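Lecture 7 notes: from sequence to structure.
We start with the chain below.
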Amino acid sequence: MQKFRFALLFLLLLTPLTISHAQTTSESQVISVENIEELMRQDVSHQMEDAKIYDMDWLSDSAELFAVYNGYPNNGVWVYDTHNIQEPIRFLSGNGVFSPDGKYWAVQTVDEAQQITNVFDVISGEPISTMTHGAAVLEDKGAIAFSPDSSLIASGWYGQTDLWSLNNDKTKETLRADSGLISSLDFNSSGTLLVAADEGGQIIVWDIESGELITTRHDHFNLAFAVFIPNQNYVISRSVDRSVTLFNALTDERLISVDSHSDLMYAALSESRFIVSDASVRQNRAYSVLTFWDIDSRSRIIEFTLPNEDFGSFIPGSITLHSTGDLLAFWNTGEQLTLIDISGGKELHTLRVNAPIRGAEFSPLNKLLALWTEADTIQFWNSETGEMLSEITNESVIDLMFSPDGTKLITASQSGDIKVWQIAA
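Predicted structure tokens for the same chain:
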């Protein structure tokens, strides 16, 4: 299950938007114990050497395999099995992408002036397919995306994007456009459309079956990134020129366009709400600003603000959505987190934390909120009542995630310490 955490993959000035989308789950329940530690036990842990961890993700909905992304100089991904993390299953080198079913890893290389896309089996590490795209213009690499059913790979370079079928190991289509280096690729949920963005800010949409170019947009004038909203044909595009656009890929109708005040912006879509997190200066003070837009009327509904503790800090707040789509957490580098009812557009609770917040994550099966802080603590909150349930110490946590079934919690620290926590029923 791929998380949309593009903001972690690039330098600040090159950071694209972060997309979240609510998907319906069963009715949620709130954990009501006095001490959350009674529900958790540390299962296993593993110490990575020379680790520069910057993200984690689950490879599927099975809550078994997960990936730990490692940065320079050892760029790549460690793949672990939650049943035994004393040793990783595999290290996959390079900046690649996983297939939605978690079985494959694809990465681009330039070898002897040839543009190449290699696909590997995640478990065995063996190559299963190699695509050669022609002579390399430069050493630059483009973008890769898998179709939702993991049967197709799109690999984009300069001026063209090749579609490759893993079923017969052959090129299905070559999609051409007058573009620069492709910076992002994404399929819609049905796998019928593909959107690309390039280094010049151009956004391109193709029909997969016919190979027809549906639209080419010029909403941006610098490096851009674009993604489809899950289960819809809306596209959100973001550029380093500080602009973000929501448009309909089939009708080419621009729905909402926003100019950012900062180099980093987050965006989310929940039902008919388009949510943008930005930064602003008001009365000589910097604020993180969260704005709700109504897609149907294309108008602003309401906004929420958080003051930046550091007067000179000019960055937007971070956001994360609950899987039910009715709850959002909004925070910045300070010691305050706001819980917001999305459908009602109102603030539910303000959580006062005793240290700057590094990140926050909802459990998918209940209203438990976990957040980690600069004080090397993990706090667990009841998001319905706004009460803190418990606080545990875990040194230098840089990422945390619940399993898709809510039974496990994974933490990663700056020291390379990976822990799996079992959450009791």
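Points to note: The CA atoms of residues 76 and 174 lie 28 Å apart. The chain has no helices and 35 strands.
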